[in-house]
Design a protein that fits this description.
Length: 406
């Protein structure tokens, strides 16, 4: 326990994150860490990372955004290269389209793992593709950074020693949602969750969080796979006169906005609450902006536009990323650029390890405590889901834009 006579013991987890952020964020701002002998052209072998993303098919609403994010970050890193030991290395990411198919993602993982020059993998914005990548990564002992949501991707940790997850843990998101529901005076809510691992994590976490917040759960429903009949699931949830005070939708884009549209068509006019995976460009596009008005979401801090006027190191890094994104793609939706952080975490681990050896990278990834573009991460041997809970905020849609509530 911290005491007044021991200043070092008074360091909070957040202050440790701030102190540990320098290498990741100085690189994001184009600066050299203290003691670095200065910029030089890359003169070593490439730092090669394999990526399996949903560029088409189910999950593309998130996958395409992550692919854009990692391209921006690779260009930033390659301006000077990444110092690994006595050499500077260019970063190259071999990106492949898994089309939202877990079997395809599994094949990608096997192909990447079989190549000696691939030092790590990232990807899987869907829980199922991420789980397939994680299984092979663990078997073949190659570090894998998951961009998918579903706590089972990294649990149990003792059996996922090579697997790390950048998205928030379900229980952290659920707790913030349940507290918001309670603070709004709602007595009972309904829960509509996606199929698969992500939805199962959400259902389990929301039930526990609502109980702790003393909010009733009137009923639960399951959303079918993207492209199937969402209306039927909504009708079952709102079938009788005893409608819930609020509805929590635990699903990624485009399922989240599809569910919202169907809920409004069914006559439900109460508040809507979403988990972080609902935030994409599609969520507040012209087709959905009216439906989503007033909806709430729990999401990492990068959704907060006010950070663009701050001058902290983390805010400067986010501002630089957002400006580059807008310059290349015309608009920034506020999605969490986990892929950007994943690339930097691998590069940072290689620098600390002075090597691209897979085993050494894994060991140094497990020690990462740092602030990224999407939020703060704190990996440890006991915790491979690194997004810190105080990186999350509550937002609402106001006139088509996400506005911070708390």
């Amino acid at each position: 326990m911290a005491t007044a006579t021991n200043p070092s013991a008074a360091l909070t987890r957040r202050s440790v994150l701030t102190l540990g952020a320098s290498s990741l964020l100085l690189g994001a701002c184009g600066q050299e860490p203290p003691g670095d002998p200065g910029s030089a052209a890359p003169d070593g072998p490439e730092l090669l990372i394999g990526a399996s993303l949903e560029l088409t098919g189910r999950g593309a609403a998130l996958g395409v955004l992550q692919e854009r994010a990692l391209r921006i970050t690779v260009d930033q890193l390659d301006a000077d290269g990444v110092r690994v030991g006595d050499h500077r290395r260019r970063v190259r990411v071999d990106v492949r389209d898994n089309t939202g198919d877990a079997q395809v993602a599994g094949r990608h993982a096997a192909e990447f793992a079989a190549r000696e020059d691939v030092c790590a993998m990232l990807g899987g914005t869907l829980a199922e593709t991420s789980a397939a990548l994680a299984e092979t990564a663990q078997q073949q002992r190659i570090p894998f950074l998951s961009l998918g949501s579903g706590d089972g991707i990294v649990q149990p940790t003792a059996e996922r020693t090579y697997v790390y997850k950048l998205t928030p843990d379900a229980h952290d998101v659920a707790r913030r949602l349940a507290e918001l529901v309670r603070d709004q005076g709602l007595r009972q809510v309904a829960l509509l969750a996606s199929d698969g691992l992500h939805g199962r994590s959400g259902r389990q976490a929301m039930r526990a969080a609502l109980r702790a917040a003393d909010v009733g759960l009137s009923r639960t429903g399951a959303l079918p796979a993207t492209g199937l009949d969402v209306a039927a699931a909504v009708r079952r949830l709102t079938a009788d006169a005893d409608r819930p005070d609020g509805v929590v939708v635990w699903a990624g884009s485009p399922d989240a906005s599809s569910a919202a549209r169907e809920l409004r068509r069914s006559g439900y006019d109460g508040p809507l609450f979403f988990d972080a995976t609902a935030v994409t460009e599609e969520t507040v596009d012209s087709r959905n902006v009216t439906t989503m008005e007033g909806a709430y979401v729990v999401h990492p801090a990068c959704l907060d536009e006010s950070t663009l006027t701050n001058t902290t190191t983390a805010a400067l890094a986010r501002r630089d990323f957002v400006f580059r994104y807008i310059e290349q793609h015309g608009a920034f939706s506020g999605f969490a650029p986990y892929a950007s952080d994943a690339v930097r975490l691998v590069a940072d681990a290689a620098g600390l390890a002075r090597s691209a050896d897979r085993g050494r990278l894994r060991a140094f990834l497990e020690q990462q405590v740092t602030e990224g573009i999407a939020g703060a991460y704190a990996f440890s041997p006991e915790r491979h889901g690194g997004m810190e809970r105080d990186s999350l905020g509550v937002y609402t849609v106001s006139r088509g834009d996400w506005t911070r509530v708390s």
